[in-house]
């Protein structure tokens, strides 16, 4: 990427990656012990549940897959673009994600399937808010793609090809903050259980308000990064 990434992209990627890390750890440590922020493992578990005839587990997993897709669909309706750009309705999407996470807390506490379903929908919404920025994939709800990009760039560097330093930095940022969010989530879950989700809910809500404020400032100061 030849151009400099705007400040709001760096801050947003770090904040949302940490949110996903926290939510996913709660999913793993919670009553279902399943991933929330990505679908690969849950799709495999669904296949296994269908083969073994475990209808209850299969239904729950299928509901989480549908919820994630529904969240992504909602993002498509709100943002209406696959490329990060200032002016899109990210603030609205983030606010809705925050409300979904808040609503999931009492359901998680009651060991109701609605908890992980709402959390999965929130993560689908978050992950679909943007696909690329200047050619760099921006996926904040899981890090498989970031690790893949990291490996590709290391391979290119070993062959003496130009290294996209900003793209490399973006991958490292998302991976590190996803891990950091997981650590924070695990520490909090051991102490306050599902109340841990209040933190990612606050972060997404705060990020939504912060984006709105930054957008208004950028309108007044067009040269703002």
Automatic annotation (TrEMBL):
InterPro entries referenced in this protein's UniProt entry, alphabetically? DUF1275
Q: Which UniProt keywords apply?
A: Membrane, Transmembrane, Transmembrane helix
Q: Where are the transmembrane segments?
A: 7-31, 55-78, 168-189, 195-214
Instruction: Spell out the Pfam families in the cross-references.
Output: DUF1275
Domain of life of the source = Bacteria
Record's protein name = DUF1275 domain-containing protein
Native organism is: Novilysobacter selenitireducens
| Taxonomic lineage from the root | Bacteria, Pseudomonadati, Pseudomonadota, Gammaproteobacteria, Lysobacterales
